[in-house]
Design brief:
single chain; mainly beta; ten-stranded antiparallel sheet; Jelly Rolls; about 725 residues
């Protein structure tokens, strides 16, 4: 079984029937584990006690000191999962303690038999204090397991047939007290609740909770949520693992009610990741609130979501909901100790699948897939023999499996041949070779047929055609391309900086080098999604945001130094860097209202029929008809070329040997206003600490509302405060 004690300090019963009969396992105050059994058939002598510290003693037998062959002082720790197992080999006169799959104690025994009692088997209760903590995957055999078998059970890697012999009870704790084998169902005691298990599965709580920073303190639960808080810690957070590699669209976060839950939500932040290593910040709470519904600017491929705080504080949560679309991976029910086949009549068969490989006839050829790479098989809705074969690397191959049966070895020893047409769902057990989750760190293409394929090279020059013309889509500056209609005539392209372009994907035929097949030629209309690993720009500066009437959003810079505006009083030439907002009149083509950073407002008609925008960062140029633009905003003014040159000279003088010269340069840069901020930020990496400090002071004085520069999306905001010395 697996245990995760909430606290130590008192003797607690983990598992108990009778310590003078079949079994009793006790968690001692120090974390030491005690195993007891006896021949009295009740809670009394004679019995024997053997601990994970290597102590062995009997009571009521008088056989003298019990010989201990091996002893390693091993204890369970609070708030940490520990796998414990005892092998009682009465024929050999040995009792062995295993902790986390390793043999820690081997002792002789003076009690040749364990007398049966009439007492019920209890988990977390007995003749001592009730156990406080979590228990998972309790299994009992009527024979002593070997060291290899116990090591395999701990690793969740063995075939069930190798450990099924003698298995009499298995309680997985998946929301009920039911025996997995269907023989010894139990009842849930008063005060027992189900929460996050070892694999992250949660019953009535947060979905797929994997890890957390800071000890969780439950403060009550309801039918569909579990409220908790952590200690006051630095960087408190939870990490949620998502199944099916979904495209996240929005999140709902609810604070714990009462107890300071809302007041302590300052700095609530959400990060996403495809590999649990590099995190991208996607949202920070703009204000305190009981809950937030967070709508992301664009769908994001992610395997993990992290929710935490930017500061040292208590993290309070009551409920988290994540909304999105499946990333093309069908959800498959998987177990820890058995392969599973659900047939069409609703029956579930458990055992070990013996197939070595599967042959699938797809639209792009016949493919043979090793069974070692298969996680599950789910039939499509249109044809029973047409299946979706899910692989360990998140690929999904769609095709037919005619004339091929699935061989299932049952625990009793017999073998069944199950035809694919009779299978509602097939899944392999969770193991080291077939882990529970997927990563989202490789380029994938989703086809209209349902195939989800990893590609290693795109041999076509991707393009997007729209009312503004045709632009190339360089892969290095692209995040995803997704189909927007069923016919495949419309697509949207997302760029790391936040730009979204609507158009038609080209060319008509795409050529991809795949991991599954050497080459795939497909029609662009059959592409549902082309996704690259989640990435953020290497550099990010405040950019102009241009909104188009078709819903496209461009973040970048206008590649014009000036704009000519025809007003009723004559033509005016405006420096682009002076623009704050530009709003187009929906009723009159090319008529706009312009607001500048000095407060001037002008109305008129743009003289140029087109404006060219460079997508940031390092994206393509897009030539826009002025009639296609709905609005434009610019977060900061831009320096004119002459002023920019002056500012660069002043920044150099910040490192002058003369204090008077450094002070003068600082004052001049402050006078230049907000427009100098983007240029100053480029020098925040200066090796001179005084230069960095002066730049921070200038930024603060130039824009008091901006306490720090706009953070790069790929930099952890906690590091931002260190970099910019908030």
């Amino acid at each position: 079984m697996w245990i995760k004690p909430a606290r130590l300090g008192v003797r607690q019963n983990i598992l108990h029937k009778a310590f003078g009969a079949e079994v009793s396992i006790v968690l001692e105050p120090t974390g030491e584990l005690s195993f007891m059994y006896g021949s009295s058939g009740r809670d009394g002598a004679p019995h024997i006690l053997i601990t994970s510290f290597g102590q062995a003693e009997d009571e009521g037998i008088g056989a003298g000191q019990i010989r201990v062959f091996k002893a390693t002082r091993t204890a369970a720790k609070a708030d940490r999962w520990t796998h414990i197992a005892v092998a009682r080999d009465l024929a050999a006169g040995r009792v062995r303690w295993y902790v986390n799959g390793a043999l820690v104690v081997e002792s002789a025994t003076t009690v040749p038999q364990a007398r049966a009692s009439n007492a019920p088997l209890r988990l977390g209760a007995g003749y001592l204090k009730h156990y406080q903590g979590l228990i998972d995957e309790v299994a009992i055999w009527n024979r002593p397991l070997t060291a290899r078998e116990i090591k395999g059970v701990h690793a969740h890697a063995p075939a069930l047939s190798s450990v099924a012999r003698g298995l009499v009870g298995l309680w997985l704790g998946d929301g009920s007290a039911r025996d997995f084998l269907g023989k010894h169902h139990g009842q849930v005691g008063k005060g027992v609740t189900y929460t996050a298990d070892r694999h992250g599965g949660v019953k009535g709580a947060l979905p797929s909770l994997l890890t957390h920073q800071g000890r969780l303190h439950p403060v009550g639960n309801t039918k569909d949520c579990l409220a908790f808080h952590t200690n006051k810690e630095k960087d408190p957070h939870i990490i949620i693992a998502l199944t099916g590699a979904p495209m996240i669209q929005k999140l709902f976060i609810e604070n714990r009610r009462g107890g300071g839950g809302e007041e302590r939500a300052s700095g609530r932040t959400v990060w996403v990741s495809g590999d649990k290593k590099s995190w991208q910040r996607v949202w920070t709470a703009p204000r305190l609130a009981p809950s937030w519904m967070i709508k992301l600017k664009a769908p994001i491929d992610a395997a993990y979501v992290k929710i935490g705080l930017l500061d040292t504080n208590y993290l309070h949560l009551r409920r988290v909901k994540i909304y999105g679309r499946s990333g093309g991976i069908p959800l498959v029910t998987r177990l820890a100790l058995a392969d599973r086949i659900e047939v069409n009549n609703g029956n579930v068969l458990l055992g070990t699948i013996k197939n070595r490989s599967y042959t699938v006839t797809t639209s792009y050829g016949k493919i043979e897939v090793s069974a070692r790479r298969v996680v599950g098989i789910v039939p499509t809705q249109d044809k029973p023999t047409r299946v979706r074969l899910v692989q360990t690397d998140s690929q999904v191959i769609v095709g037919t499996m005619a004339d091929q049966t699935v061989q299932l070895s049952l625990p009793a020893g017999s073998t069944l041949d199950v035809p694919p047409a009779s299978i509602r769902q097939l899944s392999y057990r969770v193991s080291k070779d077939r882990p529970a989750g997927f990563t989202a760190s490789q380029p994938v293409v989703l086809l209209r047929s349902g195939d989800r394929l990893i590609w290693t090279e795109c041999r076509s020059n991707l393009q997007l055609a729209g009312p503004w013309g045709t632009v190339d889509l360089p892969l290095k500056s692209l995040q995803r391309v997704e189909r927007t209609d069923m016919e495949g005539r419309g697509h949207r392209a997302w760029f790391p900086g936040g730009t979204v372009l609507a158009g038609t994907l080209g060319p008509k035929k795409l050529t991809l080098k795949l991991k599954a097949v050497p080459e795939l030629k497909i029609a662009s209309k059959d592409v549902r999604l082309i996704a690259l690993p989640t990435k953020a720009p290497t550099s990010f500066e405040p950019a102009a945001a241009v909104l188009l009437h078709d819903g496209s959003r461009l973040l970048g810079r206008l590649e014009h130094e000036t704009l000519a505006l025809r007003t009723e009083f004559g033509q005016v030439t405006l420096y682009v860097g002076d623009l704050k907002t530009l709003t187009c009149d929906a009723k009159r083509a090319a008529h706009v209202t312009i607001t500048t950073w000095d407060g001037t407002m002008l109305r008129g008609q743009l003289a140029a029929p087109r404006l060219t925008c460079r997508i940031a960062p390092n994206g393509p140029r897009v030539s826009l008809m002025t009639t296609q633009i709905a609005s434009m905003t610019q977060p900061l003014p831009l320096l004119r070329p002459k002023a920019r040159k002056t500012a660069e000279e002043l920044i150099v003088r910040l490192g002058s040997e003369s204090y008077k010269d450094r002070e003068a340069a600082t004052k001049e840069l402050v006078k230049m206003g907000k427009g100098v901020i983007p240029l100053l930020k480029k020098h925040l990496t200066s090796p001179d600490p005084e230069v960095r400090q002066r730049i921070e002071d200038i930024i603060r004085q130039s824009d008091p509302k901006r306490t720090e520069p706009v953070p790069r999306p790929d930099v952890d905001p906690r590091l931002q405060r260190l970099i910019f010395r908030r």
